[in-house]
Amino acid sequence: MLFQKYQMVSASAKAGLWFVVCSCIQSGIKFISLPIFASLMSVEQYGIVTLYTSWSSIIQIFATLCLGTSTGVFYVAMVKFPNDRNEFTSSMNGLVVVASFATLLVLLLSEGLLGDWMGIGIYSYPMMVLEQMGYGFILLWSLRKRFDNAYRPLLLVTFVFSALSVLIPVILICLFSTTTISPSFLKITGEMLATILVGIVVFADTWRQSQIFFSQGFWKFAMCFNFPLIPHYLSSVVLVQSDRILIAWLIDASAAAIYAVAYTLGVAVQVITNALINVVNPWVYKHLESRKEHLVGKSIIFLVIAVGLLILSLLCVMPELFDCFFSTEYASALLIVPPVAISVLWSFIAYMYISLELYFEMSKFVSVISIAGAALNVVLNLIFIPCFGIEAAAYTTMFCNFIYAVLHCLFTYHLLRKNKMSLSVLPAAPLFGCGICFTLIALLISLTYAYPLFRYGFFGISMLFIYIFKNRLFSIVRKQCSA
What is the band of 396 on the pLDDT scale with cuts at 50, 70, 90? Predict the structure, then answer.
């Protein structure tokens, strides 16, 4: 029955489904590996890995120029240069190489002047840049496969890359467990090797199709498009990663590790929201281009409700997940998960508005709003973390993502009025109404962790609601994939 329905849907709809599966595989393996590494390393060692990952996310912006993001230049270029897609993709790999080595040079110079200013070991700087260069190749290759609806090779590479990112570090830690080499260093090294290995393979595949390293026209177009967005991307990362960096600085690495565990669990649903953003963005642009913006609003509202229910369902079973997979050292992370999880919902709402801002080519204003949100998050963390500990970081993140969504909503409405488009494209009242309701319910669930019957009952109701409306949800995604 299901197989027959699957055979009947369009090729683009099948691709959309498998792209979601790819994202689920990648995040699922990462999610499963979390308790494995938490047991192989001490809390302090895991904190060092957390700090490295946080800095690595920031360095990625400069090493890759965010050329492989779904909200960047790539999809625009695929539409603008339909006869030169292979050449553009290949030249973007060349730009990543140049940007990565420029970033490495700056880091080495800063190391000579400031020493280990990141606090992760000077030896980690070259490893970090090489890893991000390989990851840049993977992101560009993945975007191209998504654009071409080539889900089979993407599914294979996603699974291999995700598996190697866990297997190689685990093997290294087990092999050298009796030596003086730090497990945190072995984990970082293993993930770098996995990324570089897969990155070389996909780079070779792209190079095989078009052997162009430098293209003045494509490089200029990409840099003019993405450079104004760099502050936006940087601010978005700071909004996410500054919590752990500041916790490590203001408290210690162990506290950063506890927060990282809570954060990873809280953003588990982000695999769904990221996949939805990849699917929804092209669909929204096509409808705006054809002046059919009135068809967008209801679908977005329903997707926000579905994401909210998934988040609440995750929170309902969170205490049992902690009991099964984590030691008592991480028990304090349980109460941090709800505000972090709700932050995902507000971030998803914000990105719906950002997609419209980018459609109107207002990347500079997107960056201004993002900088404001990130700056607010850093200031609030500096004020409240010393007073209230790591829980404060979770609530400041939730609050800042809410403000982030509000600001992008106001600016998007200004653009819609200016371009004489209906505000119903993304109606604020139902979207923010849903967000506030889910926020209150999530915080209520966190107060009922000691009452499993209440949580299980709510979990059952959420799952029943999702089951009843699953056809409606699949219909939205299918239409967006095939539009």
Answer: very high
Q: Cβ(385)–Cβ(247) under 8 Å? A: yes
Q: Work out the pLDDT band at 343, boundaries 50, 70, 90.
A: very high
Which regions of 191-341 does DSSP assign to beta strands (E)? none
Of residues 51, 58, 55, the one with CA closest to residue 234: 58
Determine the average pLDDT of the residues in 295-305.
Answer: 78
DSSP, res 41: S
Domain map (residue ranges) of the chain:
14-214, 229-483
d(CA 159, CA 202): 14
- Lowest-confidence pick of 133-142, 276-285, 298-307: 276-285
Question: Measured between alpha carbons, how far is 374 from 360 in angstroms, rounded to an integer?
Answer: 23
Q: Nearest to residue 322, comparing CAs of 337, 344, 307?
A: 337
Count of residues making up the chain = 483
Residues 6+ apart with CB under 8 A from 310: 269, 272, 462, 466
Give 51's Cβ-side CA count (13 Å radius). Answer: 28
Query: How far is C-alpha 23 from the chain's CA centre?
Result: 10
State the Cα–Cα distance between residues 280 and 262, nearest whole angstrom: 28
Please state the pTM of the whole predicted model: 0.72
